[in-house]
Amino acid sequence: MGGLPVLKFDPLNIQKFSDEALKVIEFITNYYKNVQKYPVRSQVEPGFLQNVYPKTAPLQPTSLETILQEIQNDIIPGITHWQSPNFFAFFPATISNAAFHGEMLCTALNVVGFNWICSPAATELEMIVMDWLAKLFNLPQSFLFAGEGGGVIQGSTSEGLICVLSAARDKALKQFGEDAITKLVVYASDQTHFVVQKAAKLVGIPSKNFRVIPTSLSNQFAVTPKAVEVAVERDVESGLMPFFLCATVGATPSGSTDPIEGLGLLAQKYGLWFHIDAAYAGSALICPELRHYLIGTEHANSISMNLHKWFLTNLDCSGLWVKNRSDLLDTLSMTAEVMRNDASESKNVVDFMDWQIASGRRFRALKLWLVLRRYGVQNLMIHIRSDIELAKHLEALVKSDQRFEVVVPVKFSLVCFRLKPEKQQGEESLKELNWKLMEAVNSSGRAYMTHAVLGDIFVIRCAIGTSLTEEKHVNGLWELIQEKTQLVLKERLVMGN
Amino acid sequence: MGGLPVLKFDPLNIQKFSDEALKVIEFITNYYKNVQKYPVRSQVEPGFLQNVYPKTAPLQPTSLETILQEIQNDIIPGITHWQSPNFFAFFPATISNAAFHGEMLCTALNVVGFNWICSPAATELEMIVMDWLAKLFNLPQSFLFAGEGGGVIQGSTSEGLICVLSAARDKALKQFGEDAITKLVVYASDQTHFVVQKAAKLVGIPSKNFRVIPTSLSNQFAVTPKAVEVAVERDVESGLMPFFLCATVGATPSGSTDPIEGLGLLAQKYGLWFHIDAAYAGSALICPELRHYLIGTEHANSISMNLHKWFLTNLDCSGLWVKNRSDLLDTLSMTAEVMRNDASESKNVVDFMDWQIASGRRFRALKLWLVLRRYGVQNLMIHIRSDIELAKHLEALVKSDQRFEVVVPVKFSLVCFRLKPEKQQGEESLKELNWKLMEAVNSSGRAYMTHAVLGDIFVIRCAIGTSLTEEKHVNGLWELIQEKTQLVLKERLVMGN
């Protein structure tokens, strides 16, 4: 083979691997040391990078040192710092040393685990940890691999929803015929994350067949089985086919939790697939004192939670458990000759590509396993409980200031409150005032919170619990809120409102 | 807040971050140094881990050292080593130092970039690199952000397919009405990856409306526009509604490439959404001498390629480009109050959650950018070309042995061949013989190849190009194949076949 050119390029350079990685580790350590100093919400303007950056890819290589310098100078200012201890927006995306190690190992092995033979350890470790978690959450036995169910790691709640919605759809269509697809109806509450509606649309359910059941302050924004039943009955009467009900434990806007037992019985009565979306709050249910939120889960067909939110396993790691794995397999199982192998044909193994949208998949179980092994359930419970304590601490601070109102009692680590300086005031004016307050906090760069509208009440959402957040950061936030409150109230006075 | 317990648990421990990471880096370096010594395809039996591992999560923490030791002892034997230089199965999942750095940084920052404000740098850097790549592949101007299109990083081809299939579906339904969903028809060839069929099923297209157009050896397994047109015409006549055509550049079974220009014109004639799946071979098209495979792409609506296959960016990193981003947005754009922000409302920014299934997303652009910056296009072309050279080298070796046959001429880095010791022999008997040969190679642990059935021809597929594969490994593979060939031929003689 004398004609071949000498290979000049060595993309996976083992000799340099350790030294180079060390430089990146040093960069990351410095980042964490300094992250509190950066404005939490990025303060750049649209186009800040796009308008100044080269328009074509470089022909020549660049040194790692130069690149790291460029990340520091050009990229970091454009980062909204989700790892800042002063990040209180959306829900925190927690991380940990153990998860970081898991991610490094997953990246380095870079196995593509579509089926068992592609790396038996990747499949079996995932089955093991998903069973571990199912037991920690006290899920019914049927959700375990030893039962008829099992758990699988998805990239997102949305991907899991597409799997269960299409499985439920195909089950319904088998009964009613393919043409029935335009008559299938999904039920969820106004607190449900929009990804449920989006997933329903993606699997072909007409948008007009998505029912948003209203909730109210008087019921702490939980949906009532009665309200759902009224909607279901109305649809049945008009010749439609109810087939899917989604409940939420720890909704994004308010942290509300739906009554699982009541909804589950209702789902059973009408033959609906019952899914529980516990994206945010699910992780907390490893604590025995919180598990009551899942009472009634034996009536559910599936449950999902984003472990990458509160479970210290960085993005992405979303758990999905199903009661009958055959439901999933009936819709998702499909393969190619190139993947045919004795183990799969023996039916003695799990091929996780039959449990998800894609065929390829990363060895994400590794980081989940590392988090559980490295810290133990004991520490993970401390982690959850201390976040909830911090949220209750902030709730108490807010309550102690008569200008403020806590709109929904804190259940987990989300505090929904608003500034309400006078008793009689229109919602529109309060909304404007609270938006101003929130923006004053956020644009200061010293903290970042987001908002929600519950019914017609505009609330500031403070979601506590990044991996670096401590009591002093919550206290600092409250001081900042008070400082900005004085400012916006004074401004309002001047404006004559 | 005297009542709060002292926080005893510190999940993101900055003090220990560097020392601990270093231990993992050392582990990984050793793994790469030894990876050639491990059996490429794992030799464990089903249940090897599941049957022996604790059935419940540990309450107590475990040290990093113990865990790394356990990975070495318990996990590594269950790994099929995709990073072994002797891995020739499926398609390689390449990795590089630069991508590893990118993944570490992405993990550490752990930003959830659903919209621009969540980290402007994450969005803008993705726009920049996707435009860079579009230019490198010589995609028409319309696929750039400066045009009406743009590119986005997906987790997999499948996710991208769900996006474009649902966008195409909704476009068609807008025209024909919602009830038409059961009449929509998708066209692909028998070389198309099954994920297209699966994605079509997931978005609600009835399975009976998926047309698999046969290909043949005489046409090197490319589909002909004529054959597609006959199928389309037949469907139109029966009152169905053709709406989606998928072409492949570098198909998984054979490496075949469909005629883009002819299929594109056909799609235009019948108003079909035309998608190009270049999952495997796409990355190679940065080399000017290969770009001719994309001639006609101006007729396409979308094109996808798995950069995590051949572009040195480890799993997951799948590029999707569309000609009209408004098509995607019409179906995928949906948001919640909690995400409302001034930048999004100004419409001056891209919110990538409107380009994908999920709302959350990792900062994957970072690793793609690092690969491009760190190596430069120059080195990336060397990387692609040397893999192709190695494949042609193996093709020559196979051709030089009269007992073998190269079934499809090598275009990229996939060699499809078979053992065919006598001229007149039935396909069934050849299939059995080649399966035996392949299994003899694979079960030796010294290399791993997979197979395909092209028409009725069983071929062994040798996909070249892991990041560590060099000429000596290809030569070693060929020696191994010859050694095992002697064995299976001798065995056959003894068995009297």
From TrEMBL, chains A, B:
SUPFAM superfamilies: PLP-dependent transferases. One of its GO terms (biological process) is carboxylic acid metabolic process. Belongs to the group II decarboxylase family. Keywords: Decarboxylase, Lyase, Pyridoxal phosphate. InterPro entries: Aromatic_deC, PyrdxlP-dep_de-COase, PyrdxlP-dep_Trfase, PyrdxlP-dep_Trfase_major, PyrdxlP-dep_Trfase_small, Pyridoxal-P_BS. The modification N6-(pyridoxal phosphate)lysine is found at K309. One of its GO terms (cellular component) is cytoplasm. It comes from Heracleum sosnowskyi. GO terms for molecular function: carboxy-lyase activity; pyridoxal phosphate binding. Signal peptide: none annotated. Gene3D superfamilies: Aspartate Aminotransferase, domain 1, dopa decarboxylase, N-terminal domain, Type I PLP-dependent aspartate aminotransferase-like (Major domain). This is Tryptophan decarboxylase. Its cofactor is pyridoxal 5'-phosphate.
